[in-house]
Amino acid sequence: MTDSEMQEQIEKSLYSGQASYEVSLAARFLDIWEPAILAVKREGYSIKCIGTRGVVVTEKFLQKTAVTIPYGHPTAFSILGSAEQLLRTENSSLRDTIVLTMRLFIMRAVEKRKAKKKGIFFNK
């Protein structure tokens, strides 16, 4: 994926307010990964395993929510919410697209909440 393709994909996700990605979720055992769907929406995200485990997490974006790339893992990324979720993709460009998209969604969700609080304060 080129930079322009990545930019276009991120803009499309931001415009529609949602994105969905096929990923693998670390099963907390030695190198066992479960196929999953990461769904990102304006206010939060969910991870649903394909198979018996079902929904693993559904969370709203908070100011403390962080999406990071662990050192030494070319296709992995981590979402830190109420718990840490380690995920990976098929290639690094998809991982980068997901990380950048999620960071923008988090930033917008936090800004939106701050604006609502200010609006409530100034409307009195």
Automatic annotation (TrEMBL):
Superkingdom of source: Eukaryota
Residue intervals of the DUF7046 domain: 28-118
Keywords: Membrane, Transmembrane
InterPro entries for the chain: DUF7046
Any single Gene Ontology cellular-component annotation: plasma membrane
Name the record gives this protein: Transmembrane protein
Species of provenance: Thalictrum thalictroides
